[in-house]
Amino acid sequence: MSFLIKNKIIFLLALVIADQASKAVAIKNLILDQSVSVIPYFDLTLVFNTGVAFSLFSGGGDLGRWILVFLVLLVLLYLVYVLFKENLNNFESLSLLLILSGGIGNLLDRTFRGYVVDFIHLYYENYSFYIFNFADTYITIGVIIYIIGMIYQYKSKGNENQAS
């Protein structure tokens, strides 16, 4: 993992490129709102999401789009600052790299397309999970790693306090 942490920019660019390439392939090969079954419980379904996570605030129009772009940009700039200026452990660095790359991938979509390209659709029987993309996955995994890292640190400090 330390290779990834030492090469933050390369790792970040690789994830953003993978996200953008997957979206380009989806746009080229899928028809909007039609599903292609890959395996049971997994379809490829192209949708254009004008909202934020889980299509929230999708009716905001152009003004809402640019407000969202601006707010996300501010958050991403803060994450860049923390990632490159703060002394982070491996959990924190990896989680912020994932969250930042996912945020950049979706910000590029929202800025240049006006919507985020989503195409991964997981479901089970009548339950359908939201349609998402690689960038969303990066963000989710990054948050999970961050939470696990915090729990690990908390438990480590608790064990140190009990030992003394």
Please, could you describe this protein's structure?
- There is one protein chain.
- The protein has 164 residues and is of the alpha+beta class.
- It has one domain (2-163).
- It has five helices and four strands; from the N terminus they run ααββααββα.
- Strands 1-2-3-4 form a four-stranded antiparallel beta sheet.
- A hairpin with a 2-residue loop joins strand 1 and strand 2.
- The longest helix is centred in the last third of the chain and has 30 residues, at 134-163.
- The model has no long low-confidence stretch (mean pLDDT 89).
Labels describing this entry:
single chain, globular, 4 strands, four-stranded antiparallel β-sheet, 164 residues
Q: What are the SSEs and their pairings?
A:
Elements: H1 2-6, H2 8-29, E1 35-39, E2 42-49, H3 61-85, H4 90-112, E3 116-124, E4 127-128, H5 134-163
Order of helices and strands: HHEEHHEEH
Strand order of the largest sheet: 1-2-3-4
Number of DSSP-assigned strands: 4
Biggest sheet details: 4 strands, antiparallel
Number of domains: 1
Secondary-structure-based class equals alpha+beta
Termini separation: 31 Å
Shape: globular
Instruction: Return residue spans where pLDDT drops below 50 for at least 5 consecutive residues.
Output: none
Q: What portion of residues belong to β-strands?
A: 5-15%
| Radius of gyration from CA coordinates | 18 Å
Mean pLDDT: 89
- Helix count equals 5
* Percent helix: 55-70%
